[in-house]
Amino acid sequence: MPQIAQRSDYLLSQLDVLEAESIQIFREVAAEFERPVLLFSGGKDSIVMLRLAQKAFWPAPIPFPVMHVDTGHNFPEVIEFRDRRVAETGIRLVVASVQDSIDSGRVVEEKGRRASRNRLQTTTLLDAIEEHQFDAAFGGARRDEEKARAKERVVSFRDEFGQWDPKNQRPELWNLFNTRIVRGEHVRVFPLSNWTELDIWDYVRREELELPLIYFAHNRRVFERDGLLLDAETGFANRGDDEPEFDATVRYRTVGDASCTGAVKSTALTLDEVIEEIAATRITERGQTRADDRTSEAAMEDRKKEGYF
């Protein structure tokens, strides 16, 4: 009887396992649903998702469009990157505009110092899903980000009103996903559920993915509010007279609405330096950078129940 060769290199790396899991999720959802869409903002998580989707269907093109729910309060560097990346891939971009929702009377813009368009995205997102008849939306949420995120299934059910109820989530046994819905319902799908922020950065380094420069240390005009360094250059954060602006060397761990996304002091100019910084931190990226998540421990869960990302 011939001897069976023993392989010593069979074990996959952590990133290989995560990548394979995410690719399987993309393929399963594309096979089960009629009109998927990938939520793409130009941030690091959606950039990683775009690469995973490319790998999932290569050499064919990605078989669904990408959509950006645009608050209108964006960092210019991120929008420039978004448009350039979409042009490079040749994928169709759908822009759902919060400003259009305000102009049409669908939502009312908040007033005051802490006004933000972040919550208004919910209506814009649900309207776009209904208009384009999307039945599955890929999002970049990760379970390590925040307590409400950790309650999500990979395939997370939304009812006919777009609402999420943690008590109504379907069980997921191993990698078996319940994809059954009726017309008017949809699911959010999170291929990065089991990834961490450090995994994302390791993958960016391995795949040599380009990111907006806002993720690396740079000089920026900012002001401090509630322990956060908010952007003073775009004018979206409604700085008060008692909140003096100043120059600081900062970078962003996440990029969202400029009115409520804070920067962190950093000297990390390279991927290796960012990864070293992330490995040493004990504060989650949302906890350190998102003003809207500091209102209460249940802030994110409340928004998700309304239909938020």
TrEMBL record:
| Higher taxonomy | Bacteria, Bacillati, Actinomycetota, Actinomycetes, Streptosporangiales
Instruction: Tell me which species this is from.
Output: Actinomadura meridiana
Q: Which InterPro entries match?
A: PAPS_reduct_dom, Rossmann-like_a/b/a_fold, SO4_adenylTrfase_ssu, Sulfate_adenylyltrnsfr_sub2
Spell out the protein name for this chain.
Answer: Sulfate adenylyltransferase subunit 2
| UniProt enzyme class | transferase
Q: What Pfam families does its record include?
A: PAPS_reduct
Q: Which parts of the sequence are annotated with region: Disordered?
A: 286-309
- In this protein, which residues make up the domain named Phosphoadenosine phosphosulphate reductase? 36-262
What EC identifiers does the entry list?
Answer: 2.7.7.4
Keywords annotated in UniProt: ATP-binding, Nucleotide-binding, Nucleotidyltransferase, Transferase
Q: Report if keyword Nucleotidyltransferase is assigned.
A: yes
Lineage, top-rank taxon, reads Bacteria
